[in-house]
């Protein structure tokens, strides 16, 4: 079992920055891909960015050039650095871990609100 805990959300003005953290515990060895997803009110959850255990990254077109996903293996943590935030980036941000044997774990989510 893998447990994920997100933190770092909050209220920020347009153009501002936030850094989200996702700390993993449990069967960390089984994690293949860690991703950040977001869900805006009335919309489906969507992929924002993901990083493989080997360090390969993938981003949604809407965040390319503004967001950066990274990992610190010593801290079992995946970060999402979000710069040049826009109101449309508002939503609940979730961390997801795709594991061996097709297991999936989700965190509880952290709210990001971009508003003046």
Structural class given helices, strands, pairing? mainly beta
- Shape annotation: globular
End-to-end C-alpha gap: 40 Å
Which percent band covers the strand fraction?
A: over 45%
Major beta sheet summary: 7 strands, mixed
Report low-confidence residues grouped into runs of 5 or more.
none
Q: What Rg do the Cα atoms give?
A: 13 Å
Order of helices and strands: EEEEEEEEEEE
What's the β-strand tally?
Answer: 11
Q: Write down the overall mean pLDDT.
A: 96
Helix content: under 10%
Number of separate helices: 0
Tags for this entry?
single chain; 116 residues; mainly beta; seven-stranded mixed sheet; four-stranded antiparallel sheet; 11 strands
Task: Report what the structure shows.
It is built from no helices and eleven strands. It has strands at 2-7, 10-12, 18-26, 31-39, 46-52, 57-59, 67-72, 77-82, 91-99, 104-106, 110-114. Strands 2, 4, 5, 6, 9, 10 and 11 form a seven-stranded mixed sheet that branches. The protein has a four-stranded antiparallel sheet with strand order 1-3-8-7, with no helix packed on it. It starts with a strand and ends with a strand. The mean pLDDT is 96.
Fold topology:
Blueprint (H helix, E strand, L loop, with lengths): L1 E6 L2 E3 L5 E9 L4 E9 L6 E7 L4 E3 L7 E6 L4 E6 L8 E9 L4 E3 L3 E5 L2
Parallel strand pairs: 2-11
Antiparallel strand pairs: 1-3, 3-8, 4-5, 4-9, 5-6, 7-8, 9-10, 9-11
Short summary:
This protein is mostly beta strands and 116 residues long. It has strands spanning 2-7, 10-12, 18-26, 31-39, 46-52, 57-59, 67-72, 77-82, 91-99, 104-106, 110-114.
């Amino acid at each position: 079992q893998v447990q994920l805990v997100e933190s770092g959300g909050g209220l920020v003005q347009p153009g501002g920055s936030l850094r989200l953290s996702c700390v993993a515990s449990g069967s960390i060895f089984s994690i293949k891909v860690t991703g950040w997803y977001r869900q805006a009110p009335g919309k489906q959850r969507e992929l924002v960015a993901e990083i493989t255990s080997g360090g390969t990254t993938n981003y949604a077109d809407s965040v390319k050039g503004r967001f950066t996903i990274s990992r610190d293996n010593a801290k079992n943590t995946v970060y999402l650095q979000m710069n040049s935030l826009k109101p449309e980036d508002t939503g609940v941000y979730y961390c997801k871990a795709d594991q061996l044997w097709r297991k999936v774990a989700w965190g509880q989510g952290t709210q990001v609100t971009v508003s003046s």
